[in-house]
Design a protein that fits this description.
Blueprint (H helix, E strand, L loop, with lengths): L1 H9 L3 H11 L4 H19 L6
């Protein structure tokens, strides 16, 4: 349930992370934080396009 709620708040796949939490338990936490960090970095890089004049 923890990974399901965290994935919901982070905008990641809820079912995928709930299943990973059930299968791997606490070992899925580093994978989850890495995925969350990569997704937020991708979002920031898309939103911060610089136009040089």
């Amino acid at each position: 349930m923890f990974f399901y709620f965290q994935a919901t708040f982070s905008g990641l796949g809820r079912k995928r992370w709930a299943l990973a939490g059930l299968m791997f338990g606490p070992l899925a936490w580093p994978m989850f934080t890495m995925k969350k960090r990569v997704q937020s970095a991708r979002f920031i890089s898309i939103q911060s396009v610089l136009f040089n004049a």
